[in-house]
Amino acid sequence: MALQQVEIDQIISQLRPQLTLWLAERDPEKTSMRYEMELRERSVRVEEELKHQRELMQQGFDMMKRQFEQVDKKLEQVDKKLEQVDKRLAQVDKQFEQDDIRLENSDKRFMLMAKRIEQEDKRIELMNRRIEHDDIRFNLRIQRIDRFMFWSFCGTIIVFCMMIIVLKLWH
Q1: Cα(110)–Cα(66) distance, integer angstroms
Q2: Nearest 5 degrees, angle CA 56-CA 62-CA 67?
Q3: pLDDT tens column, 53-75
Q4: d(CA 116, CA 94)
Q5: Which stretches within the chain are classed as H helix?
Q6: Which residues of the chain have pLDDT under 50?
Q7: Alpha-carbon span 147 to 143, nearest angstrom
């Protein structure tokens, strides 16, 4: 049974794509080119992931910067409050001088001033506690960011090492 030319052409058209794929798999030059392309694609993916990590770190730094600015604002507020306290204490000193002139009411006024000073001291202590509390929260945030950066770096190193191992095993 002889094949006609049309049938031969159909067989060739169906076998040609499979044959070229089979030959490409057997050709070491084309295989190395495919391997290089895969490596390039992987390196692009790694670069993109590193870029993403860099963006995350930048966001963390921006958040820290905002927190520093907030702490600075709070410290400025505390400074303003301390200036107000100083002004109040200056007023108290003036009132003490007036009380010395008026001996009749000096004891009563002295007790009032002592109470005011105690109230101001309590307010200062409250402000100091708030500042200490803010310092503790700030230090905790720094520790969290340090841990985040450490684990991000470790994760990147692990991924990089795994890629090297996979690439070495692939050869």
Answers
A1: 46
A2: 130
A3: 888 889 989 999 999 899 889 98
A4: 14
A5: 5-26, 28-101, 106-170
A6: none
A7: 6
